[in-house]
Design a protein that fits this description.
eight-stranded mixed sheet; nine-stranded mixed sheet; 21% helix; 603 residues; globular; alpha/beta
């Protein structure tokens, strides 16, 4: 989960903003369930009146072999001078204004036009912008063409080491912020030049304990029609080099893209760290708290009593998102099989893992919570237990505040006389910060045809069938909220974990006994507790066999509560390994097959 929260979820469940755009080599019109994307290719545009922005880049910018660029141009308006406008866009209450338009074949000197026909957020169009002087900045998010093995040609942004953050993506063009007076009622063309390029990101360095791996996936390369890679951050246990004959259990920490492991720090906190303030937790100096917690994990990890296991964080950013959800998908390709059949065997061999299902575990929060339960469900023999915190919706009867099967509209209730908006983000007191209509508009501004790179669109990309144009079939119309129940039926049969567990319990149950552990706050900001209530009802009713796992709730706890009743959420969310590794070791001792060697790694 990332979505519309106004602040970062931190190390294990981070908020990210990325955007993807429409770009199709065919002339197929967009489906009825999405508005026609406005596309600019350097032409003057239509008959739109009023103010408009004309965005171009100079010939000094490298446009590649084609001499032109595909992608999406953003124009951002801000009345907050604390940072560049491009870093001030979110789904939260404090967002600034953004408009987006697709570009295809934009050459140097040609202008992309953003006008009243362009999709905006939070104001819908340029006509809705109050007259005034704003800090304005433009960005061009670059895309490449993929000729997939399913026969579709699509244009999407490939991750370039930034985790699908369009504001940070190397190679993207941007302009210097400038003060411009904007009056929507007056015809005017405001020109912006994209004369800056975001530089490459330096790869993180290995240390004694933290290693970085990257392999080419043959399965994903075949699907996408170009080289595709999987990566991993690996923390090796204390004594790894001194015990060359030891073989270790493997623990996968699922979650969002991280350039490096941020919750493990081999040095004390920076002595000159300028304290920040966490708006989410109302804590001053939260960056120091995070660094102190990361260094404490290092001290615990290297201490005499910490379980000796290999901890792996998978890197699987892709053209749709910072993370693949670790399953096979019609739109993303066989990421589940690529991870399990290519990356995991490679890591287990190189780092001397035991390499068998009884010694393999997973945990994660938010997106990682859903992924953990999903891999245990779809690969039941290859994991011996998962610990899923605040998982993304595990039952689509409660897709946050939407019942995808029974509701007609995702934005408002179905009553004839009274239409009540459905929430998307709230605090622990129930104060609403965004509705489902808000988050849909936010993603539509960042990318047409479901390529915003945001939360609703990645769920759609993972769960939906491929449309006729090669892009994911929308689950609902982003302008009206009308739900497509045929698409919802596909979601149910392939990715609704509650439905799949119930449908297949006679075969899955014997393989999952004692393996499922789920934790969520009863005031989760994204209403994720609603789906957990539903799946808990099923799990607790199982008898043949009983599930013999755990479902637990944090009183008034927000996203992402992980089962720790002893610490506030601001602190417990920084201690996943300390919380789960002892549970994993206990599970291992109870469930290892007879004759299994548990001594080599217990030193």
């Amino acid at each position: 989960m990332n979505g519309i929260a106004p602040s970062s979820l931190g190390t294990l469940a981070v908020i990210v903003c990325s955007s993807m755009v429409f770009g199709c080599s065919t002339k197929t019109p967009p489906p009825a369930s999405e508005p026609t994307p406005s596309t600019s290719s350097g032409q003057a545009g239509g008959q739109a009146t009023g103010v408009r922005f004309a965005v171009s880049f100079p010939s000094t910018v490298d446009a590649g072999a084609a001499g032109s660029l595909d992608g999406r141009v953003y124009v951002i308006l801000s009345n907050d001078e604390s940072n560049e406008p491009r870093f001030q866009i979110s789904g939260g209450l404090k967002t600034q204004q953004i408009f987006g338009v697709d570009v295809e074949g934009l050459a140097a000197g040609k202008e992309a036009i953003v006008d009243v026909t362009s999709v905006g957020y939070p104001r819908a169009t340029l006509a809705d912008v109050p007259p005034g002087t704003y800090t304005v900045q433009a960005v061009l998010h670059r895309y490449e063409t993929f000729k997939r093995s399913d026969g579709h040609t699509v244009k999407l942004p490939m991750d370039r080491g930034e985790g699908q953050h369009w504001q940070h993506a190397p190679g993207n063009l941007y302009s210097a912020p400038q003060k411009l007076t904007v009056d929507p009622s007056k015809p005017d063309t405001l020109r912006i030049t994209l004369d800056k390029v975001i530089p490459p990101i330096e790869a993180p360095a290995d240390t004694k304990y933290v290693k970085h791996e990257r392999i080419q996936s043959q399965l994903l390369t075949k699907f996408w029609g170009r080289p595709m890679f999987l990566g991993a951050h690996v923390i090796v246990p204390e004594g790894f080099d001194a015990h060359p004959n030891a073989r270790y259990p493997l623990v996968i920490s699922h979650g969002h893209f991280m350039r490096d492991i941020g919750y493990f720090r081999e040095t004390p906190p920076d002595p000159n760290l300028k304290p920040d303030y966490s708006e989410r937790f109302h804590l001053p100096g939260y960056n120091r708290i995070e660094q102190e917690s990361a260094h404490q994990l290092y001290r615990d990890w290297t201490g005499p009593k910490f379980p000796r296991m290999i901890l792996v964080e998978i890197q699987h950013a892709n053209p749709y998102y910072d993370d693949s959800y670790a399953v096979n998908s019609e739109n993303l390709g066989p990421y589940g099989d690529a991870i399990m059949d290519e990356l995991v065997p490679y890591l287990e061999k190189k780092y001397r893992a035991i390499g068998e299902g009884w010694a393999r575990f997973a945990y994660g929060g938010s997106t990682g919570g859903w992924e953990s339960l999903a891999v245990q469900t779809f690969y039941p023999d290859r994991f011996n237990g998962i610990w899923a915190a605040c998982p993304d919706p595990v039952d689509f009867h409660d897709y946050m505040t939407v019942n995808l099967y029974d509701d007609k509209n995702a934005f408002v209730s179905d009553q004839f006389w009274k239409k009540v908006p459905r929430g998307a983000f709230t605090n622990y007191l129930g104060h609403l910060a965004a509705t489902q209509e808000d988050s849909s508009r936010f993603e539509l501004a960042l990318g047409s045809r479901g390529r915003s790179g945001e939360q609703l669109d990645i769920w759609q990309a993972v769960y939906s069938p491929v449309g006729a144009d090669g892009y994911p079939q929308p689950i609902w119309d982003k302008l009206t909220g009308v739900i497509d129940h045929k698409v919802a039926a596909h979601w149910r049969d392939h990715y609704d974990l509650g439905h799949i567990l119930s449908r297949d319990w006679s075969t899955l149950g014997p393989k999952l006994r004692g393996k499922i552990h789920i934790y969520v706050g009863d005031m989760d900001n994204y209403y994720l507790n609603n789906a957990v209530y539903r799946i808990e009802q099923f799990l607790k009713g199982t008898t043949n066999p009983p599930y013999e796992g755990e479902v637990d709730y944090g009183d008034r706890a927000e996203h992402c509560w992980n089962g720790d009743h002893t610490r506030p959420n601001a602190y417990s969310r920084l201690r996943y390994p300390q919380l789960y590794f002892p549970k994993i070791l206990e599970r291992l001792r109870k469930s290892a097959p007879a004759g299994a060697n548990l001594k080599s790694f217990q030193y």
